[in-house]
């Protein structure tokens, strides 16, 4: 179980994806992008736009059940990417590195880039934007919903 949580907003995610795209421009041009589903799909779309890349492939790897780590299982391969030459792999987060290691094995010639990296997974990725502590669970915008929070003044009025 995570000791702490970090919430990523849509604005922050977009800024970080554009920053990653900017760094990737020096490594390209790329023939295509492989998004690791599901977390890599939105960053991949943003990066594809910024790099003017039209070919987006997906690879689907299941490793988590809620917050529990399981065995990595490929349920859809990235056939169009071949061995990964000329492609960049995009994910939202590299955590333990289990998914990243499996995808790297399948696409050994691709560049692996993600928005956020934890220390255990960091050595497996080529590029990332922000390092996150290993014991932090990252809450992405698609995992959360904004909630109404009453103003502080309304709480003190209720008590009066």
UniProtKB/TrEMBL annotation:
Top EC category: transferase
Annotated binding of guanine, by residue: 95, 138
Taxonomic classification: Bacteria, Pseudomonadati, Pseudomonadota, Alphaproteobacteria, Acetobacterales
Matching CDD domains: PRTases_typeI
Keywords: Cell membrane, Glycosyltransferase, Magnesium, Membrane, Metal-binding, Purine salvage, Transferase
Localization annotation: Cell membrane
Annotated binding of Mg(2+), by residue: 92
Name listed for the protein in its UniProt record: Xanthine-guanine phosphoribosyltransferase
Family statement drawn from the similarity comment of this UniProt entry: Belongs to the purine/pyrimidine phosphoribosyltransferase family. XGPT subfamily.
Cofactor: Mg(2+)
Family matches, as Gene3D superfamilies: 3.40.50.2020
Transmembrane segments: none
GO molecular function terms attached to this record: guanine phosphoribosyltransferase activity; hypoxanthine phosphoribosyltransferase activity; magnesium ion binding; xanthine phosphoribosyltransferase activity
Superkingdom: Bacteria
One GO process term, biological-process aspect: purine ribonucleoside salvage
Listed PANTHER family: XANTHINE PHOSPHORIBOSYLTRANSFERASE, XANTHINE-GUANINE PHOSPHORIBOSYLTRANSFERASE
Binding site for GMP: 95-99, 137-138
Catalyzed reactions per annotation: IMP + diphosphate = hypoxanthine + 5-phospho-alpha-D-ribose 1-diphosphate; XMP + diphosphate = xanthine + 5-phospho-alpha-D-ribose 1-diphosphate; GMP + diphosphate = guanine + 5-phospho-alpha-D-ribose 1-diphosphate
Gene Ontology CC entries for this record: cytosol; plasma membrane
Annotated binding of 5-phospho-alpha-D-ribose 1-diphosphate, by residue: 38-39, 91-99
Residues given in the record as xanthine binding sites: 95, 138
E.C. code: 2.4.2.22
Organism of derivation: Komagataeibacter sucrofermentans
